[in-house]
Amino acid sequence: MKFFIDTADLSEIQEAKDMGLLDGVTTNPSLMKVAAERAGQPLDFADHIGKICDLVPGDVSAEVTAVTFDGMMIQGRELAAIRNNVVVKIPLILDGIKAIKALAQEGIRSNCTLCFSPTQALLAAKAGAAYISPFIGRLDDASSDGMKLVQEIIEIYSVYGYDTEVLAASIRHPMHVLESALMGAHVATMPLSVIKKLLYHPLTDIGLTQFMDDWSKFQEQS
Ligand code: G3P
Hints:
- The chain is α/β, with parallel strands linked by helices.
- The protein has helices at about 10-20, 30-40, 45-55, 70-80, 95-105, 120-125, 135-140, 145-160, 175-185, 190-195, 200-220, and strands at about 1-5, 25, 60-65, 85-90, 110-115, 130-135, 165-170, 185-190.
- It has an eight-stranded parallel barrel with strand order 1-2-3-4-5-6-7-8, surrounded by seven helices.
- β5, α6 and β6 form a beta-alpha-beta unit.
- The chain is globular and about 75 Å long.
- SN-glycerol-3-phosphate (G3P) binds next to α7.
C-alpha cells in the first residue's frame, strides 16, 4: 500500500519523508489555506507545489479551482507543467469528468476528488482518471459508511479491470487505514497525526521498558 500525506505544510511533509515511508502528497485548497496560515504569509500556489514536488519524488496532487471545462483544462495544463510528478486534482462534477478525459488524452494524469458514490467512481475510471479519491471520513460524518464506498469501488474496478488507483482519502484514524489496506486500496492519504498513530501500541512501549529494565539487571548480575 502506498502512503501519501494529506497536507501542504512543508515541515509536516519533511517529517513524514524522514520516516522513510512516504510515497506521495495530496493537497487541496483548504490545505493550502492552512499552510499559508502556518507560514504566516501568502504563498504562491505554483511555487509552493514545486517545493513539495522537489521534496517528494512521488505523485503530488494539486487541485484546480476552476469549475468549468475550459478553466480546468487551462489550470490542469499549468499545474502539470510545474513538475513531472504533479497529478491534477479535479472535482467529480460533469465538467470535471470531461476534463479528466481530455487531459488524459494529452498525457496529463488526474486524481478525481470529492467522490461520495460508487457510480461517480465508475465515471472517473471510464474517463481515465489515474486516481479516484473516495472521502471516507466525510461520509462517516454524514452517518453513511465510508468504508463501504471504498469496498464497492474496488469491486467495480476489479470486475472491469480499470487501471484507476483507489486512493482512500478523508482518513481520520488508523482503523480507516487498516480497513482500506484489508480491502486492497492502492493508496491511503492521511494527516501526519494518523501516520504517527499507525506506529503506536502501548504494549510495545511497556514491553520495551521491561526489556530495558531486565537488561540492566542482567548486566548488574554479570
Ligand atoms: O485530500 C482531501 C481529503 O483527504 C479531505 O479530508 O479530513 O478534509 O475530510 P478531510
